[in-house]
Amino acid sequence: MNRGLLPPISDNLHPLTFLLLLTCFLGFSGGGVQAAEPAPVDYSRDIAPILRSYCSGCHDDAQREGKLSVETFAQLRKGGEDHGDPIQPGKATESFLIRSLTGEARPKMPPKDEPQIPAAELATLKRWIEQGAVGPAQDVSILQELVTPNLPAAREARPYSAAAYAQDGKRLALARTGEMEVWDTTHQALLRSVSGLPGKVNAVHFSPDGAQVVAATGVTGLRGVAQLFETGTGKLIREFGGHTDVLYDA
Ligand code: HEC
Fold first, then answer.
1. d(Cα 127, Cα 122) in Å, to the nearest integer?
2. Does CATH place domain 162-243 in 3.50.50.60?
3. Deepest in the core among 15, 35, 94, 117, taking most CB within 10 A?
4. What is the distance in A from the centroid of ligand 1 to the CA of 147?
């Protein structure tokens, strides 16, 4: 009995057992291939940014070099005047897009004096085509998509937004969002710090005798409140609410 390339199996092995072994063997190798498959490439997330950075300068709706626009997936697939659809789904190395990027085909893209596509991005494009060159759910212009730069968070800056001296010049009220401070100007010492003010403080004023201080505060477009405090203790004496926009003064 000639078993060719099949694993050596005893002649009296039951055919069904053999079949089971074979299925196991095939099943295993199949699973292995699946596990090695690269993560799916997403057009909007992975491909559009590449086209936007390296191609759209010459191939948008306004420029259309070679009559090709890459602004939408549909236009990319329509292709240019000489080569038509530059993508053969599932066949990256045969796709004109990849061949022109690697220089295998003319014209070489991007042109040689332009920023070239880095190897990692080229690999992403290839993988996308290999995986079937799936388009976006909503084919909008890649130039219209909101590009949000990843900016580092601003350092916490808490500027004062209001300041006022008492009439005798001995007290200074300083305020910012949610807070007000009363300072002794003679000794440059912080006397009171009041927190919990309901928004940005736009103005502070002392009463003529200096015993009270009023803060104009609130949230822009939402509500405005004037809060009256006892200067010495920082105690809230009264609140004048009911305004539908932030107070700019009191
Ligand atoms: C600096 C401008 C410029 C940039 C950037 C550029 N191209 Fe081009 N592209 C051209 C010009 C000009 C032509 C047509 C002239 C030619 O055939 O040489 C062309 C032609 C093409 C064609 C052939 C269209 C056809 O069927 O006739 C393809 C495909 C193409 N470009 C793809 C791309 C891709 C993909 C990118 C980005 C990776 C890119 N190009 C970047 C200028 C550019």
1. 9
2. no
3. 117
4. 24
